[in-house]
Design brief:
The structure holds two protein chains of two kinds. Chain A is of the alpha+beta class. Helices cover 39% and strands 14% of the residues of chain A. In chain A, strands 2-1-6-3-4-5 form a six-stranded mixed beta sheet. Chain A has a six-stranded mixed beta sheet with strand order 8-7-12-9-10-11. A three-stranded antiparallel beta sheet of chain A has the order 13-14-15. In chain A, strand 14 and strand 15 form a beta hairpin. The longest helix of chain A has 21 residues. In chain A, 61% of the residues are buried. Helices cover 9% and strands 31% of the residues of chain B. Chain B has one helix and five strands; from the N terminus they run ββαβββ. In chain B, a hairpin with a 2-residue loop joins strand 3 and strand 4. Classes of the chains: A alpha+beta, B mainly beta. Chains A and B meet through helix 7, helix 8 and helix 11 of A and loops of B.
Chain lengths: 572, 74
């Protein structure tokens, strides 16, 4: 395995063998260690001292293994000021893994204001001028690069938001079937870090790469077959499971029913038009119009939770329309029409903006009176302003926290400067604990309690600390291996299955205890980076308004005391 | 006593339908599920008037009950 070092100051690329100390780290874990070892945690996120890292998980690039090709992207976040890892499905993670690349580390900053492409193949990697792509959205960027390099390459790219250094900018990754830049390593403003490096896109061509070696092929194949079988038989991920039938939008009605659905800037937990944007309505609409349901984003994935949302004439608007976007750009803005949300989603994807951060920022702007909730044209106008680079556009593009402070809004849904995703932490308190205590800031993928409400009452204070801590470890395991969050049931039910996959691939002779230590090591390393960046326990909180302002319909507040929150990181 | 019941996801042939049922006194959620042929082992969440409840909870003073399959989040 190799690490590619891309020096944007000298404009050269070199390949190095993976140091022994990093051999057993992948994805988010490798990113955490590289950042802690190689950058000053106090550095300016958009300055030359920060590094942008692309890293597939430990199981990336292996044919025959479902749902393990997530690409982790990391760096110091311009949004949170701390360590950041955001990951995406799509083609890139598997292709980097297949090329034997453990990471691409992008360092420095070009002396001149220029843009570049990084072209990665089995024969080597090169930086190429990309000034002709300046200002292009992700869809046009990808179309031009497909013309030049063909459809089978994976493309990682940024839109104008990343080029402008907006803290709400994400990084797009092309999908396996649609080839569109529909997958996003959206969170934390890493698109702005990529823009600060002058890197417009990465093209990955693995067509000449040999298969990866397996230390114990029989063990690996048996584990991979069992993994796929259990996914297919699962009531959650199988062919009759809610994830396959409705995708992530299956989450909407239950979250609305328990009163935790962010609505009109997190002012209430139920949306009166939820039936218009929920999973069954999404499925019914897509199928009636000739769109697609049950689409995969990664080669070989058996879950196939994605969709292609089309207009009334069957013309694709966006792929894939997901729960978080349906909520943040839908109910959170008082918008109850799928077509409107899909168009807002497309605009975010094209500009290269995190739809969660933008939905929260626009919600805050609506709260401030800049537009009425439910005003779709106003929401589109805000995104046009981001595109045009107006003062208001730059404000919104820098996220909900900045927008709320400037506009004088009291209820700003953020933790560590990053917008809450689509679960109000007052009515799903386990997620509130995760938002407050994860090194990532408010991030549902760092430990989402919604699947555990049967065991832990989401409105109760009891059991939330232990639940979040457990879920944060599970997220760490998934993010270091490249496994999709939705593929977790088999390996959470039996961690030995994950151990078998890793031992089959690498022959490490790991035990479940080794895996657990690796999870803790990852969380500890991220926490240490943030400590050195200036974070203390007082940052492990949610905004006071969420602790005092009751959330209808249950009139819940986030009431987990600070001394309890501090227990999450005990031992790390 | 009447209650509105909604069944979601792949929990049976009555998916998505809102039905109004008359309930016997002291009935539990389990009784209700049995009556509607909802396999409880496939139920991820039962919500009664916005509050989560268990299979053995009584269906008392409740207006609306929803049966959801297991969900995984966004």
């Amino acid at each position: 395995m190799k690490i590619l070092r891309v020096d944007m100051n000298r404009l050269d690329v070199r390949s190095e063998a993976v140091p022994a100390v990093y051999e057993r780290f992948g994805g988010r874990a490798l990113i955490a260690h590289l950042l802690l070892d190689e950058i000053d945690p106090a550095c300016e996120p958009l300055g030359p001292g920060n590094k942008l890292i692309f890293a597939p998980g430990l199981l990336g690039g292996l044919p025959g293994l479902s749902s393990a090709g997530r690409l982790s992207v990391g760096g110091k976040s311009p949004l949170t000021g701390g360590v950041k890892e955001a990951n995406a499905g799509g083609m890139a993670g598997d292709k980097l893994g297949h090329l034997g690349l453990k990471a691409i580390v992008v360092e420095g900053k070009p002396a001149e204001d220029r843009l570049f492409l990084l072209h990665v193949t089995e024969r080597g990697a090169h930086l190429l001028p990309a000034d002709d792509l300046r200002g292009l959205g992700n869809y046009d960027t990808v179309a031009r690069l497909h013309e030049r390099y063909g459809d089978e390459v994976a493309i990682i790219s940024i839109g104008p938001a990343g080029e402008r250094g907006l803290a709400g900018a994400g990084i797009a990754v092309t999908e396996d079937l649609t080839k569109q830049p529909g997958r996003q390593a959206a969170r934390g403003g890493l698109g702005a870090v990529m823009g600060s490096k002058g890197l417009k896109a990465v093209i990955i061509d693995d067509s000449d790469a040999p298969s990866l070696p397996l230390a114990d092929e029989d063990l690996f194949r048996r584990a991979a077959r069992r993994f796929a079988k259990e996914l297919l038989e699962s009531p959650k991920t199988g062919r009759n499971g809610s994830m396959h039938l409705y995708g992530t939008s299956s989450t909407m009605l239950p979250v609305n029913e328990i009163g935790a659905l962010p609505t009109r800037n997190f002012s209430t937990g139920r949306f009166e038009a939820v039936e218009e944007i929920c999973g069954p309505r999404l499925r019914e609409t897509i199928l009636a119009r000739g769109g697609k349901i049950g689409v995969r984003c990664m080669a070989g994935c058996v879950i196939c939770c994605c969709n292609v949302f089309v207009d009334e004439n069957g013309v694709p608007i966006v792929s894939t329309l997901q729960y978080e976007t349906l909520v943040l750009l839908g109910s959170n803005l008082g918008i109850g029409h799928l077509d409107d949300i899909a168009r807002l989603n497309y605009m975010c994807n094209d500009l290269g903006l995190d739809s969660i951060e933008m939905g929260a920022a626009i919600g805050v702007a609506m709260e401030a009176g800049l537009a009425k909730f439910g005003d779709v044209q106003a929401a589109m106008g805000f995104l046009h302003q981001v595109k045009e680079g107006t003062v208001l556009g730059r404000l919104l593009g820098n996220g909900a926290a900045v927008t709320g402070r400037v506009l004088g809004v009291n209820r700003i849904p953020v933790a560590r400067g990053q917008a809450f995703p689509a679960y109000d932490p007052r009515a799903l308190k386990g997620n509130g604990v995760t938002y407050a205590t994860s090194a990532m800031g408010a991030d549902h993928t760092a430990g989402n309690a919604i699947g555990h409400v049967k065991m832990v009452d989401p409105l109760s204070r009891e059991g939330q600390i232990e639940l979040s801590r457990k879920l944060q470890r599970v997220a760490a395991m998934l993010d270091m291996t490249g496994l999709c969050l939705f593929a977790r049931p088999p390996v959470v039910d039996d961690p030995q299955l994950m151990v078998d996959l890793l031992n089959g691939r690498y022959g490490w002779g790991w035990t479940v205890e080794d895996l657990e230590q690796a999870e803790e090591d990852l969380l500890r390393t991220e926490r240490e980076f943030n400590r050195r960046a200036g974070f203390t326990e007082i940052h492990d909180r949610l905004p006071e308004s969420f602790c005092h302002e009751p959330l209808p319909p249950h009139n819940a507040v986030f009431d987990i005391p600070a001394e309890e929150l501090a227990k999450v990181s005990e031992g790390l | 006593m009447g209650v509105e019941v909604q069944i979601h996801g792949g929990l049976g042939s009555r998916v998505g339908r809102l039905a109004r049922l008359e309930i016997e006194p002291r009935s539990t959620m389990r009784d209700l599920a049995r009556r509607l042929s909802i396999p409880l082992e496939k139920v991820g969440m039962i919500v009664a008037d916005g509050r989560l409840c268990g299979a053995d909870d009584l269906v008392e003073d409740v207006q609306r009950i929803s049966f959801f399959p297991p969900i995984m989040g966004g």
